[in-house]
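=== Structure Prediction Worksheet ===
Name of assembly: unnamed complex
Input type: mixed (protein and possibly other molecules)
Chain count: two
Listed entries:
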Amino acid sequence: MAKKRETDPIADDELLLRRVWIDKFRTAKVPYISPSAFEPRITGKFPDTDGISLYRLDCLTQIEDALRTIQDEAKKRKTGLVGLELIEIKVLIEMKLTVRISPNEEILGHVVVPELNCTDYEKDRERFKKTLFALAVKASSPQRIFRDPNDETI
Amino acid sequence: MVVDNRYRNSAIATTAPTPMSRGSRATALHELAFAGSGGWDKIIDDVLAISEYKDDWDGEGSLAPDPQVVVAAIKFAISSKNEKSPSPDRVIAGVNQSISFEWFDGASYTEFELSRTGEQFIRTFNAPNLQFCDVQ
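=== Predicted Assembly ===
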């Protein structure tokens, strides 16, 4: 049973999950998570037109629900989940980031970061890079890694 | 600083690689790749693995890395290995058909990105210098 409905306001200390491909975990160094884990997708099937996607942990019944839209089981196993509190996203000084509730039909608790959208990123990528790095540093804390695809027990 | 600006003007940047099929590219890359040893070998292996990525490699609709980016990445890795440059800690495929090499040196992080537009970027960040603002 999820703790919150997806229409509920997002609390500052609420954890928002980001899906991260296995390659972006692979190092023993810091930041453990690559800054590119937060890069807006410009090309491909699902460009981040409205901003990069995150999922509210409190709206999920189980953490793996955040991976539901990845159809291929092998790719799903290679996808990790890291969490950031809303407040950690809001305090980044380089870009005034916000988080907007953006319900979709497949996963409850879908939210977007509108400022990290593909259009603005394509125009001036360098402006984003320090912010992506800062997000990666935050997400690299051991307490924020909710699913590491390198962990063979999952 | 591990990477310097000489790579901006290297043969990688100025010589447009010949487009190849995915199979022949992988073969050619293998021939190039196993010329020596060291930390770069693992990185070269990882680039070769990335070269096999197809569209939707991540299950989220990302396109395969640009073929010219893959060739440039392997050439960069091999020339850096031959020059005995410090090997990166990680190489990754970006969601926008790019490939990035990443170095970590205590508190600093350096990224060398080969983008699908043919541009190359070097960035360094110092984690302790990150600033955060107060939010009420």
